DNA sequence: GTCTATAGAAAGATAGAC
DNA sequence: GTCTATCTTTCTATAGAC
């Protein structure tokens, strides 16, 4: 075998990385396998040695994107719970996230796109969302957990909605106000006020 | 001329109505002109007598959808401001909206889809969003307007995000909890608590 | 595993008849 | 204005060489 298992793993990861970026930016249907493979430095024919179909790639890319999003990579900092929360919320609802300067979160970038996709893709999205909510639950001040156990569902929906709407808007001034308002409200909610 | 201006207007509206439904459910790229025209009771060739291109149809369908959404049609009820707000929030964040039993709101159904579309489409989306925020501002208790003038941006983002995420999720139990949490938070925010 | 070549299908847009 | 027929492009997926 002229190609090592490690080589295959690397190629696979390159494909997923390119797919993540392209799908997030343009949506599933607007990205061709040609584009994905070109981004990964290969050609069309090699694709099917790694994934059975474009749909399967989509589901895996959603999972992959979640692992590489800013939120997860910021997880292991050792500061207080409140500043963890503030940092995640502010980083998520930042203009650089909307503009894709940082690694985009598929929950916000692909929400309506996933809704009209295969069950497999929606399952992947659901798992990623549950992971995000669980993360928030783990970092939540214990005194607030009992009073409103599902509050983090609304907070995450606010964050995802804020970014998703911001991307769709044409008016940059409005986008800044929207993001600012979402940050403010998210902080308020997280502090139980 | 064998066809009256009224006839043309009717045909045009039929096309827009079908397009609105199909685009919302499946996204722009996953809907063909064939499908739209079949839904409107015509065939492909007649399309270009009404719209210059598929993209132009998309932009107009977004505007059209906004005029026909539940929110606007509920506008002229003569009850108190608070119950107007409660009714709109609860209607929007209802499972029947997610399941498309009622006329879907393009802001929630097409958010990420629009983000990767032509400037023309994004402009239409922006206008519709501004209209929604303005509507909320008009129904807002005056005493709250000064303290946080941009609060309605976050409230609408929460509503849109709640519906968009709900559509993408595979877990119906989680969807119900998510919608419930969003309704609860939206009410709380609207009352200035 | 990756390449080039190609089969086969789908869809946007146009042409011309009625 | 609406129809059928067609041009043209694009894209998924497969086949076979290396």
Topology:
The structure is a homodimer of 193-residue chains.
Chain A: H1 5-26, H2 33-39, H3 54-68, H4 70-73, H5 81-92, H6 95-98, H7 106-109, H8 111-115, H9 119-138, H10 142-145, H11 151-168, H12 172-190
The first copy, chain A, binds a DNA duplex (18 and 18 nucleotides) through residues 1-3, 7-8, 11, 32-34, 42-50, 53-54.
3D architecture notes:
The structure is a homodimer of 193-residue chains. Chain A has helices at 5-26, 33-39, 54-68, 70-73, 81-92, 95-98, 106-109, 111-115, 119-138, 142-145, 151-168, 172-190. The first copy, chain A, folds into 2 domains: 5-53, Arc Repressor Mutant, subunit A, CATH 1.10.10.60; 67-190, Tetracycline Repressor, domain 2. In chain A, helix 5 (81-92) packs antiparallel against helix 12 and helix 11 (151-168) packs antiparallel against helix 12 (172-190). Chain A is mostly helical and 193 residues long. At the A-B interface, helix 7, helix 8, helix 9, helix 11 and helix 12 of A face helix 7, helix 8, helix 9, helix 11 and helix 12 of B.
